[in-house]
Each structure stands twice: as structure tokens, then as C-alpha cells.
Fold this sequence. Notes:
The complex is a heterodimer of chains A (467) and B (219). Chain A has 17 helices and twelve strands. Chain A is of the alpha+beta class and 467 residues long. The radius of gyration of chain A is 33 Å and the shape is elongated. Chain B has a single domain, classed as P-loop containing nucleotide triphosphate hydrolases (Rossmann fold, 3-Layer(aba) Sandwich), CATH 3.40.50. Chain B is 37% helix and 23% strand. The mean pLDDT of chain B is 89. The chains are: A alpha+beta (467), B alpha/beta (219). The A-B interface holds A 1-2, 5-6, 9-10, 12-13, 367-368, 371-380, 460-461, 464-465, 467 and B 48-49, 52, 55, 57-58, 77-78, 81-82, 84-86, 90, 92, 94, 96, 98-101, 105, 108-110, 112-115, 118, 155, 167.
Amino acid sequence: MNLLQLSLSNLSLSPLSTAVNILLLSLGTGSIAILLIATHLLSAALIRDAADIDLVVGAKGSPLQLVLSGLYHADIPTGNIRLSEARTWMEHPMVESAIPLSLGDSHKGFRIVGTNEDYVDIYDGQLAEGKLPSNLLEIAIGSSVSKATGLSLGATFAGQHGLDGAGHAHDEDSYTVVGIFEASDTVLDRLLITTLESVWLVHGESRPNSETYDTTQTNRPRENEDVHADAEAEASEAMLDDHHENEHVKHQHEHEHEDEHEDEHEDELISEYDGDRERQTTAYAEAQAITVLLIKYATPIAAITLPRKINDESALQAASPAYEITRLLQVIGIGIGWLQAFAAILVASAVLSIFAALYASLKARRNDLAVLRCLGATRSELFMLLLFEGVILTTAGIVFGLIAAHGGIELAAIALGDAQNFPFTGFVWAPTEFVLVGGLLAAGVLSSLIPSWQAYSTDVPRTLALS
Amino acid sequence: MPSVSNIALKISDLAFGYSKKPLLEIDELQIQKGEHLAVIGPSGCGKTTFMHLVAGLLRPQAGTIEIQGCDITRLKEWEMDRFRGRSIGVVFQRLHLLSAISVLNNLLLAQRLARMAPDKKKAMTLLDRLGIAGQAHALPAMLSQGQAQRAAIARAVIHSPSLVIGDEPTSALDNSSAADAIQLIKELSESVGFALLIVTHDERVRSSMDRVLDLESQT
């Protein structure tokens, strides 16, 4: 039996009061901890999913919506833009890299993204199985998608128009799963990645030769490509005709190939055919729509000039994720601030309650304190006895509050599954929780100081005389 | 003339008062080890004050109080607290067992505050000797008055002090229990070897002590 055990025994003498004090403090601690953890998880997810993208370019509208839809896939896109229009900025000297995304469809609530391999690279996406999509209607799915939908390699499904799963299904064009990504704890886990051409195919009426179309050729930013916007619409309209002509040329080529005596002519035809195919494919792509362009700057100065240039000189909108997310967090922060203030009131009430309980307990135990002095306890030991009680109550409140907060978040995460835009877990420790724990312990100690001092100052002869 | 090593308590030229007029003055008092002294006097003559002075809870205005050769008036407060824990046992008028912990833990805590290693076996042996081993794990509130008094006596002697002070230890007991309690303390005093100083109004107690100090005659 030592003083700490005596403190515990003293607290156990009034279990109801002790339990209420711990509960009060747990509620306050848990409430604040939930807010801190949620803020931490949200901030971490926002930073992680931003993947160092400097600028999101898309259709005019809300810049925040553009960032949320284009980068975090957490909102409806602002609209589509022509790839040819985006091309100007993809090839701008201030742009190091630009990744086009074509959005609009989903499967069971998970978004289908038409893009290229660069998009997978910015999230360090690794394939657990299969390969990246390279042909039309091939698709690779994120780990959360695989878990939630049960899709496996070789599975086929039709995307649904819209992002809420309520749109009509594109039954005529089914995707085939050719790859499954490893979990990356990024937005990639919740996406289905296909080629831009596949998205165009699903949504458009014209299409290139699906057997020979090399999707890796057109959707990357290219240098030295001379494609004029004026020709793009015409190219798109003429696509089918060109396609038929192409087929004709191909057949002609095949026919002549059989004639061993006309080799030279055959080579010319093949060369002509390949040139036509490349030009048509390029023209076709340029005429198609994308939803957003994810840009990384080549130079820091671009942060100042490029967004303004795009906004002023084109029909497009450029939004900086860093700026928009900061703004978003500020807006969220106001709400969180109010909630934290409410939780702080809970904590303050709990701390006051601890003070009241200790003080009342002190009054009732003055004789015990005097007896302890008679038994050989020093004033300091009496001080520590009361301080221990305050610290025990505070620590118990903190521990139960943190367990409730982390456990509650984990249970919520399990209940909501993988379908959330920002997946979360209770098995995470927000650095600000250290501040919370430190602050609460300090508050607990402060609330115990007055009763502890009173214990320290116990007048033994007077107390014994009055007993 | 007793040898110095046999003196459990020695008081010389003691004076104490809450005002300029001394409430208590004792020129000379010695108690041998194993000796039993009753302190008597009318209410207000300073019996409890005398007990507090001997226990080091009050500081005299003058004089010395030596316990086992140590002048406790020269000790700092924390040194006195520790000395008290080691060398003095106290039995209160209203028992004052700590209510939050069991009888056994009351004894173990007394050992701890005497800066001794808690000896559960010794505590149980003592409780057994006092006939309350069966109540070792009970909270004080569950004991009868007589059992509680025995437990309080056990706590006062568990650390083998050189002096045990009793402040009206039998006042709350009936005749039979009071006689038992006094007999018990005396037996323990003989076996453990501590001097016994009991402040009392009780004639039965007074008559069973070796000596009597009448404070009224001292002032």
C-alpha cells in the first residue's frame, strides 16, 4: 500500500462521483479528439491526393468544384473542354507535365477515369495483378474498387453515366478488367482507370479503328505536333468516312500484298496507310473532350503567371489546388472551430467538476489527512496524494476519451466501408492530439492544485481536536 | 538512576501556550522503555496539547522533548514527520482508521510511512494475535467498535515504535471492551518493548498504569 494506491482507494470510495467525472472528461476529450483526428485525416488525404499537382484546368465554373472533381473526385465536374484547346497549355513552356482526364461515368459509385499512364505514376500506382489498359475498353481498377465490387481480372461491366450510380448504363460498351492496383492509400484506390479513347468511345458516336488504334500515342502531351484546331471538328466529322477509306486502303494493301511482283508499290501504300492512320487518329483525339487537365509547373514563376494567363486568355478555368484547399479548410475550420469550442466547454466543465469533487472529498477527509500526518506522512506526501487523485481522474478521462474517439472513428470507417471519398481509420494519431493530452493533463493538475495545497496546509492538532 | 539507553521519553523544562501565559509547563519527566504512564487532569488543562507536543505535532515555546535520545524539538518539520512515522505510534480517541482501505492495508500503509518494507506476514500475525485476522480485508466501516479499536492498536504498533501515545483510547468503548483494549496495549508494550503514554479521564485506565502524571499539578 502506497500513496498512489491510497489515492485509487479514495477514488473508489465514491464510485458514482468518480465515474461521472471521468465520463464528463471523456466526452470532452473524445469530442475534441474526433475533430483533431478528422482534420488530420482530411488534411493528410488532401495533401496525398493532390500528388504535387500545381494547377487544375477545366471548364469555367467554381474553382473549388473543379479541384474537388478533377483532383479528389469528390464533386461533379464543371464541364468538358476540347483536348485541342487544352493542348495549348499542355505544350506551354511553363508546364513540366500535363495529364488529361476524362470523367463522367462511374461503376457502383466508383469513378471511371479516362487518362494515361502518367496519372497512375503520380500516385506511384503499382499493379497487384494484370496490366495497365492499353486497348479500347480495357480498364484497371483500384484496390478499394476491387474489394467493394468483387471485380476481378477478366470481369466485364458497363459504366453508368453520371457519378452517383443513378445514370443510364452504357450497356453497348462493356469494360474488361485487365489490371488491379495495389492499395496506395490514395484516391487511386477508389478509381477505375481506362484510356481516354475508351471514355470517348463510350460517349461518342465516331470512333477510330479499334483494332489498330494505339491509345498510348495520342493521350500524352507531344512535342512538334502541328495540329490546327480548325481542322479538328472536320476531322472528327469525317472520322467515319476516313475510317472506311482507311479500311479500303488496308484491304487494297492486303490485296496487293498477295502480288509478289508489286513489292515497291506495296511499300508505298503501307507507308501512305500508316501516315493516314496517324493523322486521322490524332485529329480524332484532338476533337474529343476531356474534363480536366492536371498540370505541374516547370518553373516556380508559373504559379504567378500561368493561372492568370489561362483564365484571361482562354475559355478555360485554372484553379490552384493549394489555394482552393486552403480556402476549403478555412471554411471547414470555422465549423470545426465552433465544435472545438463546444468540446472545450465540455472539458472545462469536466475539469471544474474534478476540482469540485476533489475539494468536496478533501473536506470529508480532513481527519484522514491529519491521521496520515500522525502516521508519518509529510506535507508533501499529502499534497501528492490529492494531486494523484486529480491526475488519475484526468488520465482516466483522457484515456477513455481517446479510446472512444479512435474506436468510434474506426467503427464508423468499418461501417462505411471503402466507398467514401476520403477513407479514414481510427488507427492514426494526429500530432495535435499530443497538444490535447498535454493541455488536459495540465488542466487536471491545475484543478488539483488548490485541493492539494489545502491538504498540504492541514493543521493536524486543530483537525484532530475538532474530530 | 536509569541508563540513557533505557529512556523512551525525556522532557525537560517544557513550556507551551497559545498566548504569553503558558498553558503547560513540565520541568522534568522521564518514561522508561516498557513503562506505562497515564496523563490525567481536568478538561482544558492541556492533556491533548501535551500529547501533540510529544508527538511532535506542536512545537514547545521552551524546553526539550527527547524520544530515544533524539530531541524532536530540533528536527525540521519533515524530519519530525519521518521520525514520528518510525518511532511513535498513536491511538486516537475516535479510532481514525483510514476508511478507504482495508484493515490490513491500514497496517501496511503505517509500515510504508515508517519507511519500512511492508510486511504482510507480520501484519497478519499481529491481527491474528488481536483476534481480528478474519477482518483483515474488511473496510473499517464493517468492523464493530471493539474490532476497530483493536485494528487501531495494531496499526499503532505494527512498526515497533519506541513510544505509543493514546488519546482517550477507551472513551468510546464499553467497560469490557475498554479493559480488553488496555490489557492488549499493555501486553504488546511488554512484548514489543515500547513505552506507553495514555491521556485519559478513565479511572480504570489510570489504575492500570505504572505511573500517573497529573497535569493540573504541573501548571
